[in-house]
Amino acid sequence: MNPQTITSVPPYRRIATEEAWLPPEMAQMYLRAIQDKSIPDPGFQSLWGFFAGSQSERASTLFRRIQDIGDGRVREMDALGTDVQILSLTCPGVQPFDPATGTALAKSTNDQLAETIRRHPTRLDGLAAVAPQDPQAAAKELERAVTKLGLRGLIINSHINGEYLDDQKFWDILAAAEALNVPLYLHPNTPSPQMVEPFLSRGLDAAIYGFACETGLHALRMIVGGVFDRFPKLQVVLGHLGEALPYWLYRIDFMHAGIVRSDRCAGARPLQRKPSEVLRQNFHYTTSGMCWEPAVMYVHKLMGADRLMYAMDYPYQVVPEEVAAMDALPLSAEHKKMFFQTNAERVFGLRTDAG
Length: 355
Ligand code: 1DF
Ligand code: MN
Hints:
Blueprint (H helix, E strand, L loop, with lengths): L14 E7 L2 H13 L5 H12 L3 H11 L3 H10 L3 E6 L9 H21 L4 E3 L1 E2 L5 H13 L6 E4 L13 H10 L3 E4 L9 H4 L9 H15 L2 H4 L5 E3 L1 H4 L1 H17 L13 H7 L1 E4 L6 H11 L4 E2 L10 H8 L5 H16 L7
Parallel strand pairs: 1-2, 2-3, 4-5, 5-6, 6-7, 7-8, 8-9
The structure holds 4-hydroxy-3-methoxy-5-nitrobenzoic acid (1DF) and manganese (II) ion.
4-hydroxy-3-methoxy-5-nitrobenzoic acid (1DF) binds next to loops.
């Protein structure tokens, strides 16, 4: 890497909002599940089978970085000019395990995360892992993680064994997030088993494109499924500049109105607000993996200066030139500080006295 490209002391703190970790014991569980096929989801087998089986430099560097949330992580943040990382358990988190195992792992990883944040309180922060496959336990764990451990919200890695959060059986989790006033980071996963096949044979199932198809679909299902009529204060964060949804804003509104008017689908009922209004009022967007000026400026203009936040997607996309490109965005000083720092402080309720 070439850290000289990064401005050393900019007039803002760089808060990176979608940064991954994986405890060593869970890394071993993933590797075992690849070998014994105990997690049959073909997307999981493809994603973690690649990392497990690859002898490449990328895979070994990634495995070292993702398991380190101590001093090694902070040293790399120094080199990259990251003031704060908001850590979350990497995809697919605890979601593929049976409900009891997932719930126990969510608790133990949240405890570990809180402990490491206590050791680096000005540099690390974090989101709670939950096991949505047991919705009531997930809502309880979210409450514990926020009120007892000081975590800042929760992450869900898209589909839950082929199911989506518009299904009312998951709504206790959304009710808890709204009541606690913390955001849900809807992070990608590989497409659900029902849709992954045509992605797999061309290597398109993961971060190149499949993640965005899966996660954009998930967010849209929540919107047209009426989640935000029921939970009007719920805030959702999408990475990767909104998984392409901002580009579709106009057409989604136009077509949704027609689908409702013509009574085309029993699962698409009238909403209190247009999908574009929900995407502006209940969603925030981060730049993970998409630190590319034309697309960032488009989302800034379309969704609003208060809705866009910086993210690197460490350790999956560690490119110092991207930090330099974001420093150089053609934004006012006020908007740039919102982008790198103050939007994240507000959305995640961070301490603003640190650093
Ligand atoms: C990758 C990218 C993997 C992201 C991830 O989790 C992930 C990747 C396993 O590049 O394979 O979270 N990402 O968010 O872009
Ligand atoms: Mn990510």
